[in-house]
Protein: Annexin
Organism: Fraxinus pennsylvanica
Amino acid sequence: MATLKVPSSFPPAEEDSEQLRKAFAGWGTNEALIIQILAHRNAAQRKLIRETYAATYGEDLLKDLDSELSSDFQHAVLLWALDPTERDAYLANEATKRLTYSNWVIMEIACTRSSNDLFLVRKEYHARYKRSLEEDVAYHTTGDFRKLLVPLVSAFRYEGDEVNMMLAKSEAKILHEKICDEAYNHEEVIRILATRSKAQINATLNQYNNQFGNAINKDLKSDPKDDYLSLLRATIKCLTCPEKYFEKTLRLAINKLGTDELALTRVVVTQAEVNMHCIKEEYHKRNSIPLERAIARDTSGDYEKMLLALIGYEDA
Amino acid sequence: MATLKVPSSFPPAEEDSEQLRKAFAGWGTNEALIIQILAHRNAAQRKLIRETYAATYGEDLLKDLDSELSSDFQHAVLLWALDPTERDAYLANEATKRLTYSNWVIMEIACTRSSNDLFLVRKEYHARYKRSLEEDVAYHTTGDFRKLLVPLVSAFRYEGDEVNMMLAKSEAKILHEKICDEAYNHEEVIRILATRSKAQINATLNQYNNQFGNAINKDLKSDPKDDYLSLLRATIKCLTCPEKYFEKTLRLAINKLGTDELALTRVVVTQAEVNMHCIKEEYHKRNSIPLERAIARDTSGDYEKMLLALIGYEDA
């Protein structure tokens, strides 16, 4: 469930465009007005506002937002203003240019979006970057990370509910064998995680738990500092319980000495229209503090207001 | 260019359905009428005929064709009656169930269809088989074959003409190094062939030829009997000059002691509406005999007539 709040009666895109234009006019910028409008419009409405703005003023709303705003607030508003597919293509492209930790962003997009949405991201990637997503991911990664990430971003998983229990049992056994041998990067482990449907993987991991007495992610903690192992655990989380994965990503971003604004913004912006309601509940349960309070404590100013509005905090 | 000949004025689908129904009626089947109709209708027309037939007679044209016809002719007509996307999904699925040689069919579909067509095949595969194409390919293959085929069927290649010459030079060098080391299954070789656009691969292989004095496929012949190496050469051919690949597939199918009807039918049926014109020219050039004569010498009866009609042979 989404946390984004769109007013039941909202003005036509012409009026929103005009208001945004006013927010940029003269000395200083009216940030509150920008939040009031953009943080309360869904993807289709924001798209229409961008189109109307371009048609009316002959300028790109994103460029104007870029030049009027700054730092974390700017980053959050710009990401939010993008269409979800464009945004994922942009985030994935940025991730291919950075190091280690950005592998998580690529995996997150590959594993938490629907098969069709992931395909649309790949299509958008062609249009924007004149290359394929898997091409850039393969080129910019090496070793075990490449072995895992390339099939993840290339997957077009079946999404039906059908589950083959025989297969679940036999593949649970394969996973257990490879984990016992510490062959975490074994092609069979990657094949199962990268090609099976989420329903089938869920059945397999339940079998794993039943047959071997441990959740698989417990058995993947032999070396808690190993980067590949933690990416593998995160992959499994994204495939089976994305709201827990996002809760943890928020927790780590907020609890860090010096907030990790990139991660905080990414999760809030990409999930506000999708599943942020469940993520908030998970967060509260796990941290004994509501997410809005944790965010308010760690951020400030317009950036804070923007994030709070997106997670549906009334007083924002 | 296609070889399929559709008459400039063709009857409405209702009439075609009725004629086909008549061809099935009474003792014996009117095979000539079936060829006269189906082998002269394009994919959209055949689809409409199937729909009209189902609406009029409450039966599936494919099932009726299946029960009325037999052996190689039956196989050719059934494959031809399918929509190209359905047909590829079916061929790929059949290939995952068979051994070694069928790896070629999977590679052929992955490498000679457009990115978008390959994606439509993957979508159709979900619908028909309740699994993903890459899932079945990964499950039914092992070792080097899996390493190569899974990324090939999962690819969504960029299709623009842009070429990065620096990259072409550096990746030609990588390919050459790996080939010198006989590391034909190296992940870098597979990365380049499975993720780069066809235009980029072409530029890279031209660089290879320029820098190292040999076409890459010559250097991949160290062991002419190695199955993986010949699949790798075929992959390169499919990506860079599919008409040559298809010519050779036809040549081997026809010259075999006992024609390989599966391969012959597959190439004729899948290419008749696509590129059969060039394939025929290649065939004539390479074998000093027109394709229609080679086919006529090796096949007979309705099967022969069906193939000749599809390759646009007038007297068929």
Summary: The mean pLDDT of chain B is 95. The CA atoms of residues 26 and 170 of chain B lie 67 Å apart.
